[in-house]
From TrEMBL:
MF terms (GO), sorted A to Z: 1-acylglycerophosphocholine O-acyltransferase activity; peroxiredoxin activity; phospholipase A2 activity
Keyword terms, alphabetized: Antioxidant, Multifunctional enzyme, Oxidoreductase, Peroxidase, Redox-active center
InterPro entries the UniProt entry points to: AhpC/TSA (IPR000866), Peroxiredoxin_AhpC-typ (IPR024706), Peroxiredoxin_C (IPR019479), PRX_1cys (IPR045020), Thioredoxin-like_sf (IPR036249), Thioredoxin_domain (IPR013766)
Highest taxon, organism lineage: Eukaryota
CDD domains: PRX_1cys
Described function: Thiol-specific peroxidase that catalyzes the reduction of hydrogen peroxide and organic hydroperoxides to water and alcohols, respectively.
Protein name, UniProt field: Peroxiredoxin-6
Length: 231
């Protein structure tokens, strides 16, 4: 991959069919759709092996993997280093976690040392370069639905670590709103009330949500701030 290619990345938009890429990973070669099967997926990149923020993030992702499994989400990490480096760095990540009961990172890490996938998926951070001037991968998160569409994307720079509890929280919202005609408000967590989307007329909302709809009175007189218990 040339510097020019790396600097003009295409990227993916919400709702796009996720590319069914093939990649070398720490569990062998995989093809994305075969790996995901009917599950949800999360693909997250990090800038480089043997770097401090990335080590804390992958440690946290490994620790939270049972929470992703509970939600039927398969995890895949990516960085632009080789398989050998991933295997060796994995031992550091496990040591950082200080949990002797875990002897393997519970998800594959893609070895994208030619940056081909990082360019295809728009994951590079042009501000953060290696010694030869090539951009590193940003901290990118893609959540993929069972129909292989991009449902959420987050893009953080190398210098800002992600919050994996927040990623679980948004997956809870994505999975709820995939099946119920609701939206989740600020800081929502499972069990909290949800919002009735504006496109649903009042009559329909009453029959759709038999647990009741509470509408907050507002200075505008408009009746759009409507809550209902989580269905
Ligand atoms: C890190 O993971 O610690 C890191 C990687 C690249 C740039 C800055 C920080």
């Amino acid at each position: 991959v040339s510097k020019h290619q790396a600097e003009s990345m295409p990227g993916l938009l919400l709702g796009d069919a996720f590319p069914n890429f093939e990649a070398d990973t720490t569990i062998g070669k995989l093809k994305l759709y075969d790996f995901l099967g009917d599950s949800w997926g999360i693909l997250f990149s990090h800038p480089r092996d043997y770097t401090p923020v990335c080590t804390t993030e992958l440690g946290q992702a490994a620790e939270l993997s049972p929470e992703f499994t509970k939600r039927n989400v398969k995890m895949i990490a990516l960085s632009i280093d080789s398989l050998e480096e991933h295997y060796s760095w994995s031992k550091d990540i496990l040591a950082y976690n200080n949990d002797e009961t875990v002897s393997e990172i519970p998800f594959p890490i893609i070895a994208d040392d030619r940056r081909e996938l990082a360019v295809e998926l728009g994951m590079l951070d042009p501000e953060e370069k290696d010694q030869s001037g090539m951009p590193l991968t940003a901290r990118c998160v893609f959540v993929i639905s069972p129909d292989k569409k991009l449902k959420l994307s987050l893009l953080y720079p190398a210098t800002t670590g992600r919050n994996f509890d927040e990623i679980l929280r948004v997956i809870d919202s994505l999975q709820l709103t995939a099946h119920k005609r609701v939206a989740t408000p600020v800081n929502w967590k499972p069990g909290d009330c949800v919002m009735v989307p504006p496109a649903i007329p009042e009559d329909e909302a009453r029959s759709l949500f038999p647990a009741g709809v509470y509408t907050k009175e507002l200075p505008s007189g408009k009746r759009y701030l409507r809550y209902t218990p989580q269905p």
